[in-house]
Amino acid sequence: MSLFNIPDGVDVIEVRKKVNKMLSEARKKAKSKKCILCGKEQSSFCNSHSVPQMCLRPIADKGKVLHASLAMGFDIGVVDLDGGVNKSGTFNYICRECDAKFFQDYENPDNIIQPPTDKILAEIAVKNMLLQLNKRDIELELLDIKQQELGIYENPDKLSELKTLDQKEYQEEVLFHQDIANNNKEGGYQILFWEVLPYKVPIATQSAMVLPYDMEGDILNDVGNMDKSVRMQYVHIAVLPLEKKSVVLAFYHKRDKIYRRLRHQINTTSREKVLQYINYLIFEHTENVYFSKTIEEELKNNKMIEKVSQEANGLPTFGHLSADNIFGMDYEAVKPEDIPNFLDESWAIKEEENTDGEE
Ligand SMILES: [Zn+2]
């Protein structure tokens, strides 16, 4: 969760206002001309939601869900599904036609509760990588604007070079998974966990993650390695609540071999512990997550949630180390069991709490 680096002694609210203005400028500049999925030139793009509406509506209260920034201690974490108050988690990368067609297998409540096909996994992976790509594009534009307005980077050229590198990697990932979906290729994905829970969890998310450590704390991806020949490897996590059930899914593509050990660990761990681990990965590694208002108080008041939300790969202050946090040396990273497991039935949204209901 390291999009914004806010220096000490700066008024957070003012910075957020500025950043929001910069974000909308950056969004305008970052728009490409062609739809990445069909390659056709477009004058306007669809405002695609990364987490399908079918999974946000069931946890919404009067059309509103909460966003990750609330757990991070910011006060603007409300997403209005109808009014679009908060645009996080949306991307403008593909044309309306592709948005309506490409994801239709998985964006269907009847399909998603069945054991996932390779096509469905590929659609989810494409969506996750599009969101990463879009985020990087905006960040690249933001770098320029932020440097001009706040001057907070010592070496902006180096940062920009790294982010351009990421962009190529994400583009390659999008095309790789798109090819699997379009050509119905089978046998490529490895499911780590898939279950349809018989209750409605208060969280909706889907995200591609580069995990630095496995369940035992051994290194998976060397996230500090800037060598251009090192390709980062991804795990895809999805928690998709429906009206009366929830789908929890974790998978990777078999070319991302480093996760074989994680697979073994998951297979030899109890179901409860795996759910707890997935819940932890969500708070540690993605900001593309939406919450029901039923857990608002817990999100606001639980200090461990705030702490884990401000970690980056187990390091404090979004991974920005300085003398202020003793370069992270005495920092104790949050563990899965330190935070509430919102995938557990005890946190499920009860029938009477669901104010929106079936529409
Ligand atoms: Zn298209």
Across the major sheet, the strand order is 3-2-9-6-7-8-5
Total domain modules: 1
Low-confidence stretches: none
- Rounded mean pLDDT is 83
Put simply, the count of helices is 11
Organism: Blautia stercoris
Protein name: HNH endonuclease
Characterise the protein shown here:
The structure is a single chain. By secondary structure, this protein is of the alpha+beta class. Helices cover 37% and strands 13% of the residues. The protein has one domain (12-353). The chain is built from 11 helices and 9 strands. The mean pLDDT is 83. The structure holds zinc ion. The site of zinc ion has 8 residues, from helix 4. This is HNH endonuclease. It comes from Blautia stercoris.
Topology:
Elements lengths: L11 H19 L17 E2 L3 H4 L7 E4 H4 L6 E3 L9 E2 L4 H6 L7 H4 L5 H32 L6 H27 L6 E9 L5 E7 L25 E7 L4 E8 L6 H8 L3 H15 L3 E3 L4 H6 L1 H7 L50
Antiparallel strand pairs: 1-4, 2-3, 2-9, 5-8, 6-7, 6-9, 7-8
Helix pairs in contact: 1-6, 6-7
The chain binds zinc ion.
Task: Record keyword descriptors for this entry.
single chain, 359 residues, alpha+beta, seven-stranded antiparallel β-sheet, two-stranded antiparallel ribbon, 11 helices, globular, binds zinc ion, HNH endonuclease
